[in-house]
Design goal:
Blueprint lengths: L1 H9 L16 H14 L2 E10 L4 E9 L3 E6 L5 E6 L2 E6 L4 E6 L6 H4 L5 H4 E3 L7 E7 L8 E8 L7 E9 L5 E11 L22
Antiparallel strand pairs: 1-2, 1-11, 2-3, 3-4, 4-5, 5-6, 7-8, 8-9, 9-10, 10-11
Length: 209
């Protein structure tokens, strides 16, 4: 089961086809709007569907709390959990009692989980066929091993910064692709810090929950 989460952490994809843009904001204005959304989004919950490059799909619940906290609670039969505690991403596979951990900054998800990151240095706008949709590709040219993430947003009045995150695609240095599509997004909802606790299967006698 670990393969699901590995592609998500260590690896982006394109949720919308790219064609010449028309009637859209300038790239600089679009980057500023996306940055404003990420800084304004204090919390978010959503349902997600994850698809790997072979077409295999898995679903779950996402919980996000800025800065840096995120939880991917996969469907029950997956026995897999990914948690970000603000400093690192931890992937727990309860089927094999295995735990792996990465600094958030070494993952494409850093673009989402660090609202202070300067997108003008690491991001470029990807044209879309719909002027109501913004897409940004983020990567560190000095650290290609960290992968690339392409995030997709829809303009939505009332959402933080006037945008709603629809999902993202991640691509690692080995061309492993994973897409995340979000639905039922809710912003600014109460999220307890305990939502980002987890149980270590390697030490069943010690509970972190």
């Amino acid at each position: 089961m670990l393969k699901y989460g590995f592609a998500l952490i260590a690896a982006p994809l394109a949720l919308t086809a790219t064609v010449p843009a028309t009637a859209q904001q300038s790239p600089t204005d679009s980057l500023a709007k996306i940055s404003n959304h990420l800084r304004s989004m204090s919390t978010m919950t959503a349902n997600f569907t994850q698809t790997d490059r072979s077409g295999q799909m898995i679903t779950g619940k996402l919980i996000l709390k800025q800065p840096g906290k995120i939880r991917f609670q996969y469907q029950k039969d997956a026995n897999l959990l990914i948690v970000g505690d603000g400093k690192a991403l931890t992937m727990i596979d309860y089927d094999v009692n295995q735990v792996q951990r990465w600094p958030i900054g070494n993952s494409p998800l850093a673009a989402l989980l660090n609202p202070e990151r300067d997108l003008s240095k690491y991001g470029k706008i990807v044209p879309t066929r719909n002027p109501a949709v913004l897409s940004v590709e983020v990567s560190d040219p000095k650290r290609p091993e960290y992968g690339v993430i392409t995030m997709v947003f829809t303009k939505k009045p009332g959402a933080p910064g006037g945008l709603s995150l629809d999902g993202w695609v991640s691509l690692d240095s080995k061309n492993n692709r994973t897409s995340i599509r979000l639905s039922n997004q809710k912003f600014g909802v109460p999220v307890a810090n305990s939502s980002f606790n987890w149980t270590d299967p390697r030490r069943k006698s010690r509970s972190k929950r």
